Amino acid sequence: DAGITQSPRHKVTETGTPVTLRCHQTENHRYMYWYRQDPGHGLRLIHYSYGVKDTDKGEVSDGYSVSRSKTEDFLLTLESATSSQTSVYFCAISDRAGGPGNEQFFGPGTRLTVL
Amino acid sequence: QQQVKQSPQSLIVQKGGISIINCAYENTAFDYFPWYQQFPGKGPALLIAIRPDVSEKKEGRFTISFNKSAKQFSLHIMDSQPGDSATYFCAALFTGAGSYQLTFGKGTKLSVIP
Predict the structure, then answer these.
(1) Is pLDDT of A100 > 70?
(2) Which chain B residues are within 8 Å of A59, Cβ to Cβ?
(3) B8 pairs with which residues across the strands?
(4) Are B85 and A35 in contact (CB under 8 A)?
């Protein structure tokens, strides 16, 4: 998985609790992304980062925040988890902005269940 | 608003047959179209990609056909094998300055039966 680790790999939590997912890369890639994957919806971008402390919203950012204090780490936080945030979360990285030769490499995913 | 529509949702093909997955897009600014392959429990991985200035790209048993006027593109898997059983996602991207967002189709689950 291209030097990308995600932690935890599985998590079960209760509604209303805060949750933080971590993505760690060893590739020194500038761009990092958080996606969620749900049946019938494919992959949808939550937030992305184009450098340390530089982040922006994606398609489905409501209820999520991110932080990137180091090149190698990108954190996704659910401030108050809801059942609608039950999903599989994928982190991705790319060396440059997406396009030919600058593919996004995906991590192994985190399965989050909110009860 | 779904900008990339993918069909079918699922596909069953006999070993040795041809698998065909179709995608249509709406935004004419898209200029890069990758396909991703995902096995159960794994993250998606880039399979093959095309730019709209070519009508076809082939890599081994995998071919992308692109129809710019119809705003459609498709993945053909020739001589399909059980090891090709996976979920396939088409995607689209505008590679202009400041753009980072891949827009994915909803995915096609392919099952190749022996």
Answers:
(1) no
(2) 101
(3) none
(4) no
Residues 6+ apart with CB under 8 A from A90: A6, A34, A35, A36, A37, A43, A106, A107, A109, A110, B43, B44
* CB-CB neighbors (< 8 A) of B99 in chain A: 97-98
Q: Token pair for residue A110? A: 């985190």
- How far, in Å, CA of A17 to CA of A29, rounded? 31
Cβ–Cβ < 8 Å for B53, B22: no
pLDDT at B60: 96
Nearest to A98 among B9, B43, B102 (CB): B102
Q: Has residue B99 got a pLDDT over 80? A: no
pLDDT of A113 reads 97
Size (chain B), residues: 114
Q: Which two tokens stand for residue A41?
A: 């919806």
Nearest C-alpha in A relative to B88: A42
Length of chain A as a residue count: 115
What was the pLDDT predicted at A60? 93
Q: How confident is the model over B1-15, as a mean pLDDT?
A: 91
Alpha helices of A43-103 — where are they, by DSSP H?
none
Among the listed ranges A28-32, A85-89, B81-85, B107-111, which one has the minimum average pLDDT value? A28-32
Show the tokens assigned to B37: 């392959």
Q: Higher model confidence: residue A96 or residue A88?
A: A88
CB neighbour list of residue A101: distance below 8 Å, 6 or more residues apart = none
